[in-house]
Amino acid sequence: MIAKKHRLSLAILASAVASAALVLSGNVPSLLAQASRQENIDLSELALLEASSKANAKDSSGLDFSGADVGSPTQTTGAGTRGKDACVAEEGKPLIPLMPAKKDSRTQIFNPSSLLFYLPQNTASASPTLFFYVPEHDADKGEIVLVDEEGDAIYWSNFELSDTPGFIKLSLPETVELKVGQEYKWFLAIVCDPKDRSADYFIRGDLQRTELSQELRSELERESDTLARAKLFAKAGIWYETLELVARVRQEEPEAWADLLKSAGLKEFAEEPILDCCTLEEEL
């Protein structure tokens, strides 16, 4: 268990970037220091980018997330951030979170996969389940860190990776209690070399816990069908519960899964398998 919250100040992150050693006082996860290396892109430019999801409105299953009011992108990542000796295949699909994304068409000239700008998403749960696509790799472990608005690491854990590329889901334990109205940052890394964390391959993003309206609570109480409940969450712009519910019925409702990912700008990932993986280990 984390004995105390770790304060992640900008000064600490800056000093980590300047240092060849990325382990900070033996406490702060090194991937957080690595994260500060990512380049920022002017939000005024991002505002001009067209969301590919907007062109994919309401497919035949009726499950659509393209109209959700999710605000402007605040996090950018392409094929993840690679360390100098990253263990992830350079070809093929990248490491990504399953979150609605915008594409920057400007990068397609020199980067066929283009950059993806992930949009901060809502959850109604105090301990949500997060989904990621993990590509082909040579690592044994992954690492996830959750940071609150104050810069404190409130959760930090490892997990065993599958040898097979595909979607993984990480269910946060009940000891994690997100507060309504607060924003959090998550960091996910593939640990290529436990002895040299500069080789990590990682991504990051944002989430916020929202409170259900009384109307939505009443509708959910009356509705027992899983897919119908997912549509209610989607209509309310609550991504994580929408995704988790649709994932539960993917085998019976493959069209709904494909439509959801298409509406979120992730059509290319719709056929990838959901792996029987991964279990978070005891908190570090």
Give me the count of strands: 13
The CATH topology of the domain at 6-57 and 73-211 is given as Immunoglobulin-like
Shape: globular
- Using the coordinates above, name the CATH class of the domain at 6-57 and 73-211: Mainly Beta
Helix-strand topology string: EHHHEEEEEEEEEEEEHHHH
In round numbers, the mean pLDDT is 77
Helix content: 10-25%
Number of helices: 7
Radius of gyration: 18 Å
- DSSP strand (E) fraction? 15-25%
Class inferred from helices and paired strands: alpha+beta
Q: Outline the biggest β-sheet.
A: 7 strands, mixed
Task: Compute the separation of the termini in Å.
Answer: 5 Å
Q: How does CATH name the architecture of the domain at 6-57 and 73-211? A: Sandwich
- pLDDT < 50 runs, ≥5 residues: 1-28, 38-58, 69-79, 107-114
What does this structure look like?
- The protein is of the alpha+beta class and 284 residues long.
- It has a domain at 6-57 and 73-211: Immunoglobulin-like (Sandwich), CATH 2.60.40.1220.
- The protein has 7 helices and 13 strands.
- It has helices at residues 10-18, 30-35, 43-46, 214-222, 226-235, 239-248, 254-263; strands spanning 6-7, 75-77, 81-82, 96-97, 101-104, 115-118, 121-123, 129-134, 141-147, 152-160, 166-171, 183-191, 201-209.
- The strands form 3 sheets. Strands 1, 3, 7, 9, 10, 12 and 13 form a 7-stranded mixed beta sheet that branches.
- The protein is globular, with a radius of gyration of 18 Å.
- Mean pLDDT is 77; it is low at 1-28, 38-58, 69-79 and 107-114.
